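Notebook entry, structure prediction.
Reason for the run: the old model in the group folder had no record of what sequence produced it. Starting over properly, with the input documented here first.
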Amino acid sequence: MLRRVLLAVAFAATLGACDTIKYEPPYEVNAVPIPASLQRLPLERLETVIANGAMREGNRWVFVRSAPGVLDGRLDLRTHQVVVKVLVQPQDYSIRYGHAVNIKQSGGMIDRRVNVWLRALDRDIRIALAREQNI
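New structure, fully documented this time:
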């Protein structure tokens, strides 16, 4: 009987530990330098390069320019939604996590899958800037 109780407690503790591992602080990108050769481009062109890179084939990000240097982005996956802002300046860009819908969140922490999507967004923007630089 004692063995069953100990096993039940150990099992419950394991489940609890697994649940907390799934949460992370939101991934944000701060002032990533834009290649020097692209810093001469008009701000609107930089915004277009970044938005197109983020919306490349296979991605579901959608971006809208809400102000000069500000792109509002949204990712819709099944029933989940993630909202971000990409702040673009001639010399750098930043990604700010906004909020999520239908995604587990707890105390300022989010489901770690959101960070996978945010890191992929950052990677796709970097690739788009590198491609533009080589044109």
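Summary: The mean pLDDT is 87.
The old model has been moved to the deprecated folder.
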